[in-house]
Write a structure and sequence with these properties.
By secondary structure, the protein is mainly alpha-helical. The chain has one domain (2-120). It has helices spanning 6-24, 38-52, 57-70, 97-115; strands at 2-3, 74-75, 85-86, 119-120. The strands form 2 sheets. It has a two-stranded parallel ribbon. It has a two-stranded parallel sheet with strand order 2-3. Helix 1 runs antiparallel to helix 4, helix 2 runs antiparallel to helix 3 (57-70) and helix 3 packs across helix 4 (97-115). The protein is globular, with a radius of gyration of 14 Å.
Length: 121
C-alpha cells in the first residue's frame, strides 16, 4: 500500500483545473500549484476531505462557496483576488456548465485516488 498525501491530490486537482481554465479561455488563469497562495491550497484540502467523505459535486460547490464567503469573498461579475469577487459564488444550478464540470472533475479525481487499491490517503 502506498501512502498518498492530500497535498499530492491537491496538486493534481489544481493542475487539472488550470487545464480547464485554459480550455475555457478564462482570464486570469490561476498560478501553477507551486505558486498558488496558501488560501487556495487550504480550499483544495478542505474540498478533498469533503469529497473523500462522499460529498457530491453540488455539495462540493456549496462547501467551496461557504469557504470563500467565510474568507470575505463576495459575488462579482469578474474574478478579482484583490477585491475578493468571484462570479461562481452562486447556487450550483446557476453555474455555467464549464464550471459544473470543474466540480465533477474534482470529485472524480479524488474518488480515483480513494478507489485505487494500492493507495491509502
Amino acid at each position: 500500500m502506498v501512502q498518498i498525501s492530500v497535498d499530492l491530490v491537491a496538486r493534481v486537482v489544481h493542475e487539472a483545473n488550470r487545464v480547464l481554465q485554459i480550455h475555457a479561455g478564462e482570464v486570469p488563469i490561476g498560478p501553477d500549484y507551486n505558486n498558488a497562495p496558501d488560501w487556495q491550497k487550504e480550499s483544495a484540502f478542505e474540498g478533498i476531505h469533503k469529497a473523500l467523505a462522499g460529498e457530491t459535486a453540488e455539495q462540493l460547490h456549496q462547501s467551496w462557496c461557504e469557504f470563500k464567503i467565510k474568507d470575505g469573498w463576495r459575488f462579482g461579475p469578474v474574478k478579482d483576488e484583490v477585491l475578493k469577487h468571484h462570479p461562481c459564488l452562486v447556487s450550483y444550478s446557476m453555474l455555467p456548465m464549464d464550471q459544473k464540470i470543474k466540480d465533477h472533475m474534482f470529485a472524480a479525481i479524488v474518488q480515483a485516488f480513494k478507489d485505487a487499491p494500492e493507495v491509502e490517503l
